[in-house]
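Review box. Two proteins, two foldings.
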Amino acid sequence: MKEIYFSPTGTTKTIVNEITKYFSRKKETYDLLKNPLQEEMSFGSEDFVIIGMPVYAGRIPDVCAKMLSEIKGNNTPAIAAVVYGNRDYDDALLELKTILTENGFTVISAGAFVAQHSIFPGTGYLRPDVKDKQAVRRFAKSSCEKFESVTDIKEMDFEVKGNFPYRESVSVPLNPSADKTCKKCGACARICPVNAISEEKPEKLNKKTCIRCTACFAVCPLECRGFRGVRYTLASKIFEKKFSVRREPEVFL
């Protein structure tokens, strides 16, 4: 059992972990945030892979898509999961399934799961919750049953929601920053997947490179990094009001 994920705030990791719990196999983990892929990775038909990705503005983050293109399968059974902040996953699940299929994986199931929004945490607050995790476990059980009952690879195929061409990949026009309590420990710079933060001067941010993943928030020992200002406060109120209705996981087999 191989689990692969990119999880800046830990919620995608939580979902993938819940899926792998159902399978009684020895687990090998690939954390693409802490250990970015540097070379091609290959799996065989005897492997079983679970891949989880976050959703940013309805798409798989570019940095993740590039790493996923280097992960190759050979009729390798896989479960695909995306995690989004209660707004919508748009084309992300279709994008992930397509990348995996084109790279030689046999995707047996796919799911879109909800987590607390990383930029506007009032949306999807404290999710995934108990109900979400129960849904993940049911999904894992159904996936396992399908894998064990279907012998023809062609019968494994299924459709997921999404559109092609995919929606345009856009960046949120908000910039994270550190407050005066920052001790310049460099943790934020070391975790940043796109090297948008200077380790010597963490108050400096490459706004064009930053993907607003908030990994730097999660790793900061003083919790001094965040989004600030009137613009952010106003955007938070509008976003949280607009997307306050609870969305439930959607699965495809």
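Next protein.
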Amino acid sequence: METTRRVLVVDDEEGMRATLAANLELEGYEVAEARDGAHALELVRQQRFALVISDVRMPGLNGVETFREMKRIQPELTVVLMTAFALEQLVEEGISEGVYAVIHKPFSMEHLVRMVGRALGPRAVLVVDDLPDVAEAIVAGLREAGLRAEAVYDGHTAIRRAREEAVDVCVLDLVMPSLDGVKTYEQLRRLSSEIRVIGMTGHAGSEMIHAFTRRGGYTCLRKPFEVRDLVLAIARARSDPGAC
């Protein structure tokens, strides 16, 4: 089977591993299982995987430590973490270093299968800001964190780019000439309900922000913000079952 369908499940609980593997195999994925972080690293050294789904809390190497070592072996690897705990410092560190998303236990298999499908897709983050320097600086920060990202400078181009290729997450300035963020968002959602949209603004009033979130915008960040905060917002949006 092609590498793009090969998934590694890492969990010290045998029952959880077997359940995840069985459900993913039913969806047509080739699945390998690892009982802990050390076993996962051994498998990653032996063969290539498109995606790793790993528990965070395991004996020996935890999920974030395992993620770091796996990325040294296969830098292009996509990793989803599983946890039964609220977003903690350890998990935030993993996200800031390029973890695709965090799925919280207990979760439905339907949610997991949707997330796997998205994680193995193009995964592009589209940054839209009418100030090119701002857009490019955000893209540079996202790429440094291990995310695939590109910039466009107006709403019309954003809509065209989303139509031409799959856009996973759109980071959208709300105040732009010609087509503002709310109108751009509405057109993006008509193209695909799967696109997560995160707003950003340094000027929009509360009425515009509320209009954006009422229509389904995931969240809105106030400029200036740290790239780390945006990376966390992207991972949370990807992880949210209500946004799938």
